[in-house]
Amino acid sequence: MNNFSFHNPTRIEFGQGQIAQLSQLLPANARVLLLYGGGSIKRNGAYSQIIAALGKRVCHEFGGIEPNPEYETLLRAVALARQEKLDYIVAAGGGSVIDGAKFVAAAVPHQGDPWLIIGNRTPLHSALPIAAVLTLPATGSESNFAAVITRRATQDKLSFKNPRVFPQLAILDPTLTYSLPARQVGNGVVDAFVHTTEQYLTYPNDARVQDRLAEGILQTLIEIGPQTLAEPTDYAARANLMWAANQALYGMVGLGQPQDWATHAMGHELTMLFGLDHAQTLAIVLPALWRYRLASKMAKLAQYGRRVWGLSGDDAVVAVAAIEHTEAFFTQMGLPCRLSAYQLDAQTAADGVAQQLIRHQRTRLGEAQDLSPEDCRAILITAA
Ligand code: NZQ
Ligand code: ZN
Q1: Hey, CA dihedral for 319, 323, 325, 329, is it positive or negative?
Q2: Hey, which of 97, 184, 191, 233 would you mutate to test ligand 1's pocket, going by the most ligand atoms within 8 Å of its Cβ?
């Protein structure tokens, strides 16, 4: 196990009806910027509960944050917050709204070019506090310090990380997810699954608690995934999905562990170039990447196959079967593992992703930092 330091300051309020806690937990004199997306919060009851909980506090709304939140849209929210002197952000939605809120929180007090916040190219001295009301369990954004922002004009989908943008408060009410379309439920399961494997499926590092935490999250997702797709209002299944997705990127799975994240790096470029949902890209890339890296990931793939899927046999046999089980699970969740499922030509996709990775200086990916854009091109060709 490698050295690590860990501090997650987000207060989590979990369970049905917890939006009401905003009334107690936000400062009485908070001047609130309420951020949301395309309007799902107005249809599933989140909006009316938030407005009721905010009571007499000043509240200005900013809706219309897109899936894969756009830089230009977020700058308009920054302008509103500055104009109205708003000092507390309530972000209600999925990862896109919460990531957008993190950027707005950082940009409002920031002097200088806000684009430099993305990619951590400028120091942040402060940020507005954020309360996240989660409606889509997937990214873990509600209690981590990462955000992914898209700038369409320059074809950039890039992240920033800063402890100042940890949400102060995260409300996790599983009933808010009942209105999710099946596609987003499948996306959430697969995204949480791949967050876990990015931090777990590398090489043995004798971090037993972290490994078993990862395996527990993966087993939970495999158990409840089909059930929660079939019965959207099964509270226990949604509660377990919400907590599994949170824990997958809460910070503990990867402590003191080598981490991969190449699937995400390639996936972000696929989303930028071809508009696929974030998790759809992961389902395509992960199995292909595992096959390409079979030798270097063999020991961990075999451990995963035995402990998570209950397989037995030689390492090589178990590793290959574990990849096949993973593909079958993603497909069952409604996410195919081939580019052709989205009518994408593999050569075009592979060339495009390789070029973007070079442009973004992401040329040494993976746990050993030895995965080049050429390797990524080869991986995507196999995902035809
Ligand atoms: O915009 P609204 O109307 O709210 O609709 C959304 C959106 O269309 C809808 N939705 C959300 N909750 C709903 C609902 N519809 C009905 N009922 C509900 N309860 O779902 C659609 C997708 O929402 P979005 O927020 O885009 O999805 P997700 O949570 O998967 O977030 C994806 C974004 O997060 C980034 C991705 O790259 C992508 O930009 N990620 C953020 C990470 C982080 N901050 O740590 C890590 C991830 O790896 C990921 O990169
Ligand atoms: Zn992800």
Answers
A1: positive
A2: 184
